[in-house]
Amino acid sequence: MASNSRKNIKFQSSGNFTGIRLTEPSSYAAGFTGVKVALQHTFKEMGISRAMKTLGHMNQTEGFDCPGCAWPDPEKPSKIAEYCENGAKALAEEATTHTLDNAFFSNYSIQEISTWSDYKIGKSGRLIAPMILKPESNHYEEITWLEAYRIIADHLHALESPDEAIFYTSGRSSNEAAFLYGLFARAFGTNNMPDCSNMCHESSGVALTETLGIGKGSVKLEDFEEAEVVLVIGQNPGTNHPRMLSALEKCKSKGGKIISINPLQEAGLIRFRNPQQVSGMLGSGVELTDVYLQVKINQDVALLKLIQKKLSTLDQVDQQVFDRDFIAEYTEGYEKLMRDLDQYTEQELLERCGVAESKIDQAVNLLAHPKKIIICWAMGLTQHKNGVDNIKECVNLLLLKGSLGKPGAGTCPVRGHSNVQGDRSVGIMHFVSAELNKAIKNTFGFDAPEKPGVDVVHAIPAMHSGKAKVFIGLGGNFVSAASDTEYTAAALQACDLTVQISTKLNRSHLVTGKTALILPTLGRSEKDLKNGAQRHFTVENSMGIVHQSKGFLEPISDKVKSEPEIIGDLAGTFFRGNHPVDWKKLGNDYDLLREKLGEVISQFKDINTKSKGSGFYLPNNVRDLDFSKLPNQKAQFSVTPLPNHELREHEFLLMSIRSHDQFNTTIYGLDDRYRGIHNERRVLFMNPEDMQLLALKKMEVVNISSFYDSQERKVFNFLVIPYQIPKGNLAAYFPETNPLVPIHEFAEKSNTPISKSIRVSVEKAV
Ligand SMILES: Nc1nc2c(c(=O)[nH]1)N[C@H]1C(S)=C(S)[C@@H](COP(=O)(O)OP(=O)(O)OC[C@H]3O[C@@H](n4cnc5c(=O)[nH]c(N)nc54)[C@H](O)[C@@H]3O)O[C@H]1N2
Ligand SMILES: Nc1nc2c(c(=O)[nH]1)N[C@H]1C(S)=C(S)[C@@H](COP(=O)(O)OP(=O)(O)OC[C@H]3O[C@@H](n4cnc5c(=O)[nH]c(N)nc54)[C@H](O)[C@@H]3O)O[C@H]1N2
Ligand SMILES: [Mo]
Where in the numbering of this chain does the Molybdopterin oxidoreductase domain appear (predicted)? Predict the structure, then answer.
């Protein structure tokens, strides 16, 4: 492997402790503390008046879309403030007034910066000028945009095949930027377009496409007001989608019930104090979950099968539990599913999922007669070997109940990044769509490649083995987000060139190819100005609404460019005018770009006019109960096997989760307030009985190892915290635990790394 000569770069935050303080886990989310913490973060990074003015524009119809999660805005945003604590933190992180000037990069070598924690690296400030790390050098230096484009173009021209380049996308890019980026990759000649979705909701996309014919959810925000029951499975909305709690609160106020399925009792699912209401700020808040099923890690299939089995038994009594008309008219595979359920005894399913039968019976009773059910889920279901099956079992339950294609019912995969769904809709994908290629040919006059490209877990070995030599990242932090950190780091370091289009400094700017470039870009909250006029872009939220977003703040520096401009200029430099597409024009004129998007992808037709105001819904066949794309034109029931982990004695399943103070690899702070952890990230949540078994004391220091393909992977120095988690299960934070996730272990069909069920053992650190 042709690794570059730079030595001593740290791939990860150090194993040093930061001074832990423990409190009791919280029994409610948000309330006054949430508002206070939100304001503290924004004031510190942005100053009081700038923060208050900017927050007032977030998620408002004429304002900008929150750079945090993808939860939709209400049709009539609240006048007070349509944001949450973690949205405010995301804004503070992006709109900080701290900047990284040339003195910063000449003072600190990449080696030195790499010894800092992710928290400190992120806090250093915004990137404000294009920078280059030359071969053999250990310091970034400023470079002109023109030189930067030339270097990339030269590297791309030097490749033997277009498949030697990787075009990664994180989910914060606008529809405009992502469409243009995908177009450039295809014009260059490759489908090597891994994206963060591969590590995230890809399992949902695969499962939903195979069963329902569309890889997205079917519910709308208002459906939560009509739902009789909402299941929240493998998701921690109090931290990761706080505005979803308002929707759950509305559901409850209309008499709906909530069932939560999670190995941890997450505060946000227990009780919610709505900070937009006086009663929420001062009162005791609303109890959200009616039945809490503390399932063992990755035993959701067993639990969902048991629920279906018990429902089937009830249905045999009164024939009122399953929606027979719906099953007959719209579905296929019901008998096969029933035969499969007959194979299992209730007892074996019960033992596997580890939940008290009385609780499951309560959930079954809640589900028995309602026909308006919503199932919400996130990473707790997708990031397992059988991630696709997990979601198919959710679909089974909805099909049995006829809970699709009507108000108050449906699928709700709760997306992560604020535009990850839009990026896929506009063509960011590693697989080939003949329809898309044909439309590109018609509109732009070039042939897009017909060979599938690599996704995340295949891009890394390609770089590792030298098959791919250039990596370009449109946002994100690839080295910290992907699995098997050490292997991924070596893969990036084997590249000739790595390019990051970014707002903030992160570890992927330090773990680089021989030459590395940083191309600084505007954040969401900033005005995107061209010749004095302000441009806007569009995004798609978790429920398929496409709407516009318009920045509010003055740009952090006049050297920072918008993403479409960067891509257009880069493509223009690469093709030197020898291409049917006028790249520079397209990257500058967003109206034209959107018009072309509408020509190529018909669901975006008229996007220029339709995306104004509260925007428009993209078509969704499930909402119309149109399953014509599926076998026999029916929605599909699925038969799935039970997962099998073959744990040996003293082995555990570890889930890598988010703390309350992070956005993926961006660390806002060192607290995980709801879980009672303060000022420390190196913690391992463990059941007290397991601690006893291993003779571990509270706060004892341990190392964690995983064993796969006869290799030991190890992370060091974690403090053991006794916690209410099922026996045999462990939890610790991402990205600290990413070195444990083996590169070759990922979900069947979706290839999503197994970040939520890593087989590990624990030893005392000496
Ligand atoms: N503030 C903030 N917001 C975010 C993010 C962030 O980092 N910070 N990240 C964004 C992104 S990209 C995403 S994808 C989403 C992630 O949102 P989540 O999926 O909510 O995030 P995780 O912390 O990964 O939490 C997974 C939850 O699943 C549970 N879980 C783990 N394994 C299992 C299992 O086997 N079965 C069940 N039933 N539950 C399980 C965990 O206990 C945890 O509550 O959030 C988005 N929003
Ligand atoms: N072990 C483990 N690993 C995981 C997960 C897990 O739960 N466990 N979760 C996975 C999931 S769900 C996801 S989505 C991935 C996330 O993977 P990524 O999307 O690659 O990672 P992020 O941390 O979200 O990327 C943050 C960086 O994006 C840049 N950025 C922020 N805003 C913008 C912008 O507007 N434009 C541009 N160009 N850049 C911007 C900043 O430089 C910032 O440092 O991680 C995955 N990895
Ligand atoms: Mo995600």
Answer: 126-505
